[in-house]
Amino acid sequence: MTSPTPRPFHSMDAHDLPISAADANAARGYDAYVREFLSYGSKLRDLFAVADAAPDAPLLNAHAAALHLAFEGAEGWTNAAPYLARMPAARARGSARERLFCDAVDAWSDKNFHGALAALDELTVRWPADICAIKWGQYHAFNLGDQSALLRFGRRAAIVHENTPYAHGMIAFALEQNHELDAAHDEGVRAVEIAIDDAWAHHAVAHVFETRAEAADGARWLDRCAHTWEGKGVFIRDHNWWHAALFRLTLGDAAGALRIYDDRLWGEWPEFPQEQIGAVSMLWRLEMRGLDVGERWAPVVDEARRRAGERIFPFHDIHYLYALARAGAPGEAEAMLASIEEKAAACCERTAPAWRGALLPAAQGALAFAEGRFEEAADAFGVAGPRLQWIGGSHAQRHLFAEARAFAERRLAQAPNRAANQ
Description:
By secondary structure, this protein is mainly α. The chain has helices spanning 24-39, 46-52, 58-69, 74-91, 96-109, 113-126, 131-143, 147-160, 167-177, 181-194, 199-211, 215-225, 234-250, 254-265, 273-288, 297-307, 314-327, 332-346, 352-370, 374-384, 395-414, 416-420; strands at residues 10-12, 18-20. The protein has a domain at 7-146: Serine Threonine Protein Phosphatase 5, Tetratricopeptide repeat, CATH 1.25.40. The chain has a two-stranded antiparallel sheet. Strand 1 and strand 2 form a beta hairpin. Helix 12 packs antiparallel against helix 13.
């Protein structure tokens, strides 16, 4: 008689969800990772050692791969490879929930971001207690510009996690991106009542102030929160200070925004794509307000040059393209635009709206703007504007292109030949 195949042992996480092929130490390591992930902590990399010590645990290896992929540059795919290689065998040992998370990461590794979102959607409908999967679902929804999915995941977090730290910050941001500003503000404040260091909630409430055009209140809010960011990961520190600089620009304090750029926005981790796009966005805005940023473009362009051929996220690509057009070597931006055109032409029906319908005209506008062809820039940004949600990014981030269009139109109105012909 053949002995039955033994079921893999498992431990339970902090939300009473099983983790297959994981002992108690591995489960504690996973719980620590979830806390760091939700709180934007600085010790996320500790998960890699936990996953390395449990090579048969599907969930741990899938999350380790996800962390690398979330770097959002080519290195992320390279560094995820060992964990992705373990996943097929480990997946077979996992529960249905764990298999769905592996499916999401597998799709993500193929740059099938819609497939990743679909797998996480199914997972969190069935297991809304998995707040980490909900957070990853929001990550993909945001990058795909799918605001309804962003809120759908947020509402699932409310089912189980009324008193879970950092859950209300997730809900708050989803509400704000769906223009439910009063509810977003209330959820953000509730989040901070539960966890004063909820930097994502700080960010969500800042978005509310930005959308309401209440820059002074937004600046005060972030100034009061900033002391809690020092122990956080680079992304949230950079990004919340980026919002603080944006408020100062709105208040007419461009010099203050430039000081924040120098002190907080560039140099902590220049290889990180999110630091790069934040820098491009802020330098572009500063120059539109008449500031001389000196040699600050040079190191940013060095990093953008390394990303110019990646074609991972359209939102990132337009920032890299502008950096090359503004301060790169002759021909670099044109070559990158040609590569974007090739990508757009080859897109499937699902990805064509982002790459062909939104990014391509926006990229053409960015190149024209950098080269002083303001009529072409204004026209191209006008075409792209109603579609820009499809490339991802937040309302505040995408407003850069509306500002660039308005700047181009002002320059056209001020041109001597235009005045002479009227």
